[in-house]
Amino acid sequence: MSEQLNAFEMAQKQFDAVAKQLNLDPGIAETLRWPMREFSFRIPVRMDDGSLRVFQGFRVQHNDARGPNKGGIRFAADETLDTVRALSMWMTWKCAVADIPLGGSKGGIIVDPSALSTTEKESLCRGWVQNMWRNIGPRQDVPAPDVGTNPQMMGWMMDEYSKQVGQFTPGVVTGKPLGSGGSLGRTEATGYGVIYTVREAMKHLKLDSTKMVAAIQGFGNVAQYAAIGFVEILGGKVACVSCYDRHEKKAFTYSHKDGIDPRFLLTIVDPYGTIDKAKAQEAGYVVEDGDAWLGKDVDVLIPAAKEGQVNAETIKKISKRVKLVAEGANGPTTPEADEFFKKNNIFVIPDFLCNAGGVTCSYFESVQNDMNFYWPKEEVLQKLDQKMTVAFHGVLDMALEKKVYMRDAAYMVAISRVVKAMELRGWLTGEA
Ligand code: NAD
Asked: Which of 20, 39, 134, 184 has the most CB atoms around it within 10 Å of its CB?
């Protein structure tokens, strides 16, 4: 019963199923279903009121056979070691499916960042690095922003690491601010990456992108650029977007009779992805319930908000017209909804392929840091398009060859690549 599994148990279950399909050696499977290394540590921080508080920090390095570990750092009040383990494993598969030479890791601190002052946040970021600096670095493990962390925090972490090692080392973290080692195109990367895979899926399904209509959940970083890309790159129409209204504490769907104008909505959305409802209504937008996006008469669904949104309950609303689902968010589809897609022959671009544009651009950031030479935005996006297109076709070819669902094919591609790297490095022969 999937509801009772925590994130790590779920990640292991998914892995076990594919390991079986691939007929993986049980010893290799046992190696890959656990992280290679885990760090758990306490970070004391002097608070603004003079008191000393101690925070729990983590870093989990799942597998670095294909290159330095890569993965974000989350600041969340409900963070657990098992969540970080699961996310580190998914990063290994994501980097492998995108075919970037990196492994998988994730980190976190149990903290509600909104309850900290700027100086307290800075101390916490520096404290995390003081614990971890010997075990991270451009050739070991490269953190990035994630839930509850942002480019400014990456700037502090990069500075602390550089101080510890005595050398300016921008490549130790990615997602840094522009002007401090960040890459152009990072803001657009995940959303545009989603669209590059949607474009390839439409070619495969022989759909004319200019006649396609999409419904998008979310209007944060991923959804904003997926919406812009759907209109400007594919020439299609976006019927609606939904977002969580943090003032009214509920989600709403925004639609427009002519299709939404994502560039306009970008001018009335706050940094947390909440659209200004009054201004949207003034501009002729119809505001409906948060789940309404899923029931629209559209060809394409792009869940790009949060996990578990397409589930046994919400799936009942889906229009018969839907042909394609592009998972911009991580884990938006529950196993029950996945079964529905399989049964109804709806083509799914699975999350760790579909949203791999972000980590691919992070990889480009590291490359630029290494060279100390920075590419124009057009070059970053063109390289991103190429990577995402090749990644999509690698998975599609596997799905067609083995006659399996796209999600299973993505796991098969990723796991095979990691096992291959382990073999080539001699890790599986006892000669390492
Ligand atoms: P974000 O915080 O910028 O935006 C999230 C959006 O979702 C906001 O508009 C919010 O209002 C909306 N939302 C939240 N709950 C909702 C609900 N119940 N109904 C409708 N809308 C809701 O986040 P983001 O960076 O855009 O990330 C979105 C998803 O994509 C997450 O699952 C994230 O893990 C994943 N992801 C992000 C990146 C990236 O580079 N940003 C990369 C890979 C995966």
From this structure: 184
Confidence bin at 429 (pLDDT 50/70/90): confident
pLDDT of residue 430: 62
User: What's residue 352's pLDDT?
Assistant: 96
Q: Are 395 and 97 in contact (CB under 8 A)?
A: yes
Same domain, 148 and 229: no
Pairing of strands 237-245, 141-145: unpaired
Q: Is 236 in the pocket of ligand 1 (CB under 6 A)?
A: no
For residues 202 and 308, state if they share a domain.
yes
Same domain? 254 vs 389 = yes
96 to 68, 235, 278: CA distances (angstroms): 12, 31, 44
| Same-domain check for residues 272 and 412 | yes
Mark whether 331 and 317 lie in a shared domain: yes
pLDDT at residue 24 greater than cutoff 50: yes
- Asked if residue 1 belongs to a domain, the reply is no
**Per-residue pLDDT reduced to its tens digit, 210-241:** 999 999 999 999 999 999 999 999 999 999 99
Number of compact structural domains in the chain: 2
Q: Is the CB of 217 under 6 A from ligand 1?
A: yes
For ligand 1, the distance from its centroid to the CA atom of residue 155, given in whole angstroms, is: 22
Q: Is residue 6 part of a domain?
A: no
Number of residues written out for the chain: 432
What phi and psi, each to the nearest 5 degrees, are found at residue 366?
A: -60, -40
pTM: 0.94
Which protein residue has the closest C-alpha to ligand 1 atom 33?
A: 329
Range of the domain at 163: 37-182
The answer, yes or no, to whether any atom of ligand 1 lies below 6 A from the CB of 171, is no
CA of 363 to the centre of ligand 1 (A): 21
Pocket test for ligand 1, best of 87, 95, 244 (most atoms within 8 A of CB): 244
pLDDT higher than 90, residue 4:
no
Question: Can you state the angle between helices 406-424 and 7-21, rounded to 10 degrees?
Answer: 80
